Every structure is written in structure tokens, then in C-alpha cells.
Amino acid sequence: MTMWTSLDPTEVTVEPGARAGARLRVRNTGDTVEEYRLSLVGKPSGWSRVEPDVLRLYPGSEGTAEISFAPPRSSDVEAGPVAYGIRVDPRENAAARDVVEGRLTITPFTETRAELLPPALLGRFRGRARIAVDNLGNTPLTASLVARDEANRLTFDVRPNAVQIAPGRAAFGELVVRPQAVRWTGAEESHRFTVAVRRAGDDTALDLDGTFDQRPVFGNWLVVVGGLLLTAVIAFVVLWFNFSPKIVSAAKEIRATGAPRPAPQGDGEALPEAPPPPGGTGAPKPGGKAPGGPPPLTDGGPPPGGGGGQGGDPGGAPTEGGQDGGGAPTEEAPEPGDGGNEQPPAPPADTPTPPPWVPGSPKDVIVEFAQERLANMSSSNPCRLQPGWSPGVIDTPTRNALACYQDAVYKDGVENQKNSAAIFETDDRGTLGRATLTSLWAQGITVDKVRVGGTSWETTQLTAAFWAAYNRDYSPTDFQRARTNAQYGIDHFRLDKDMTSRYSSQVEDKIRAYQAAVGLPATGTVDAATIKKLVGGSVM
Predict the structure, then answer these.
(1) ∠ CA 453-455-459 to the nearest 5 degrees?
(2) N or C: which end of the chain has fewer CB within 10 A?
(3) CA gap 15, 69 in Å, rounded
(4) Model confidence pLDDT, tens digit, residues 160-181
(5) Total Cβ atoms within 10 A of residue 57
(6) Would residue 432 be called left, alpha or beta, if left means φ above 0 and alpha means ψ between -120 and 50 degrees?
(7) What is the pTM for the complete model shown?
(8) What angle do CA 362, 366, 370 make, to 5 degrees?
(9) What is the Cα–Cα distance from 473 to 454, expressed in whole angstroms?
(10) Of 366, 372, 394, 369, which is closest to residue 385 (Cα–Cα)?
(11) Are 343 and 418 spatial neighbours (Cβ–Cβ below 8 Å)?
């Protein structure tokens, strides 16, 4: 042995995010000048260092090196004791190498984040949400989930009511909210509630605020329609009874007045005279009407209902688009080609239409964003939307461009593994659904443009893509947010005007929740795998 080593102290305790150190002493006990190379081995080597890492000593001389430990405050650094070693390699006498062993204890720390997805629920009989809990500490986490409302007008079902989460991982709980009383009519009623996430052994809780907007079973429109139908039924009944033929019994009138009844035949009373025979002396009186003959003429005109009404004359058949012989107006004939059937009116343009948007859907600014995205692709891209499309509607050029784009994304994901190829799992070919909208928003996002604390247009794209991927049922608030994002995208392509956003902790939380939902490590940092999922149309 040509050297002597000593480590002081051999056991060191350090807190994540802080710094601690030890000292290594090396003495050259040989008779030649020696150079010693120092290096760390073990788990702490990634966030520890030795200074200096080379000692050149003369025979009998001694040198020291400082070892510093700086573990990051991250869930990747688990709490507890960790063994490490410092390898000393003599240059001249390699066989005399030595490893000085030490022990490092990392203290535990806790950090928990939680989110209610979505925080605003809407329904008539129930509302559903997910509770995302992230363990950002370096020790296992056991947390309970408890929901409550101050007015005590809701009931909650939380499954599971407790979760166990390893460091750096996330867990989800399902929440079902039901009102205790059904609201049949009237306006929407908003209920506030709180979900408490409490760590085992800790009295403090992380409260998540949410709202449940209870819709009436019979909306105002249904009450109005029902009232109109009831009014129509009452009017029909009244008209039916007022205009129905009345049958009067002559027997009742005779009984009431006491007049004598007609005598039956054969009782000796006189019978009425028989009609005169044809050609006999019983001809009709002047101006009278012969039995079975035509009615008398008036003012020398043609007989009513006769054939003298040609050319639209009085008493003739009704002419096209005119009036009949009696002067009563007739309905106009239907336009040629419509078969006499009227087309139903299209719904108003501002009526919320949840995805997917298909041919025949009302005009929407969200569809117009997708058209601008497709129209601004490179000229060499076969899926580029060519001029001639109608803004905001799924016309034939838009449908063909969407189908081409979806096929290209799926093919690129299956053959080249450049995305998740999940676009057809929720969307039909040629329609604009959540997966296609998410993929269109994610196009052009690069990892270097979306960093924590940065501000960029790509961050706006990212939040819009997550918004499309999160929302399964579009409420009016969801539509307002989605349409606002769509207008930002239209301004970007049409006016070269960018609405930038900051990569805040809220964006980081949404990224983490999305990553956990699509099977990626929940790091909260945008990486290539996350972008592949977005471009491939992976939605929650």
C-alpha cells in the first residue's frame, strides 16, 4: 500500500435543495511522486462532486479534497440513507487503488398538488368530475378525499375515498355529485362545494373549490312549447264543437208545442197529391223548376258549375295562381322541383353545437380556425385547403382536407411512430372532432419554445390543445373559451398577430394531468412524447 486515506465525517445528513460536505485526506506513503485521481461512485454521483479531482503528492506529503452533496428538491431523490464511495486511483501504482466508503442520509420533504377536473359541473340529476392528486415529495403519500357543501343540498360519491401515491406519481379519484332535490322547472341553480385532500398524519388539507349548476328537468323552452301545444289542443276542441253539425229532433219540437202528429197511411186521412206524370197536364208553373231538370239561368249567364268558365271567367275552374269562380283565394303552387315540401329552417348560427362538427352544422368560428390551419399549410402539402371554401362550415373542400389530414396523421403514426395515431379512436373521417382539433392546435409546437417561465405563442397553442383534449361535454362556458382560442388562431394566420401566454404553474399542472391521463410520466414538462400524443389526437 502506497497511500493512506481518511474520510471525515463518514456519515452526512443533507436536506433536498440544500448543500452538505465532507473532507477526504490522502497521504503518499511511497517513495516516488504519485498522482491520485478521485471520483464519486454510487447514487449521489449525479448531484455531487469532488474538488479537486486530482492530487499530486510527493513522498510523505498529504493532500485534501472537498466532497459536496447538493441533492435537488425533487421526488426523484428519495428520502433515507444512501451509500456512496470515493475511488482513489494512483497513476503509477494502479494496483494500489482504493475506495473510501461513506454514508449520506437524505431528509424527507412533502409537497402535494391537487386539481378538480373540471371545476364547474353541469347537469340535471348528476355531475361527474375527476380529482387529480400529485405527490411531488420524496416519500410515499397516503391522502383521503372528502367532498362537502356548506348548504347541505348535495350528496357526493367519491371512489376511492383514499389514495396511495409513490413519489413523483399521480392518482385519480372519481367524483359524482347529485342534488338532493330534483329541479323540475325554473332557472338554473348553482351549488358550491369543496373537495378536501388531506395527507395522512397532517391536520391541514388542500381544498379544491367547485360548482354544480343544476339545470331544470323541463327547461324554459319546453314549458313554452308545452304551453303552445296545450293552447292549440284547446283551440282545436273549441273549434270542433262550435262547427260540428247540429241534429235537431222534430219529435221533441212537436212534443214541446203540442202540435198534431202526421197521420200514418191507411187511417182514413187524405194522402198528399202524387206528382204529375211526364208530358201530362201537370206541367210546372211558369218560372217553376221541373223535377230532375237543370236550375234556371240568371241574367242570361251560364249555369253555376257549368262549362262556361273557360279562361278564368266567373263560375269556371281556378286558373294557375289565381282565384276560383267564387272569388275565394287558393294556395299558390309549390316552386318547381321542391315536391311541395318545405325545407326545415336551419338553427341560428349562435346555437352551441358540440363536437364533432359535420356537414350541415351551423357556422362556427372553431371550424373557421381549422380551415385557416389547413389553408396555411405548405404549398407542397397535398392536404392543404385550397381557395373556395366557405368560412365556418364543413363544406366539401373542408371535408376533403380534413379527411386527407386525418389519414396523413394516422399513417405517419402507424408507419413512422411520429405520433400516437389515435385520431380515429374518437373522430370520424372528414369531421372535426376533439381529436382532430387537438392535433391541429398541436401542429408547430416545439419543445424549445415551451419552457417553464417562458412566454410564447406556442404556449397559447399548447393550452388550446389541452382545452380541446380535456372537454368531453361542451357547456356555454366551454364554448366561449374554445371560440376565444379559435379567434387567437385565426388572428395568428390571417393577421400575423400572436396572443402570447406564460408557461405558469397552472399550465404545468394541466400538462401533468394530461400526461397521466394518456399514460406518460407526469413530469409537468412538455417533451417530445407529449407532443406526439397531442399531434396523434390522444384525448381524455
Answers:
(1) 100
(2) N
(3) 10
(4) 999 999 998 999 999 999 998 8
(5) 19
(6) beta
(7) 0.40
(8) 110
(9) 31
(10) 372
(11) no
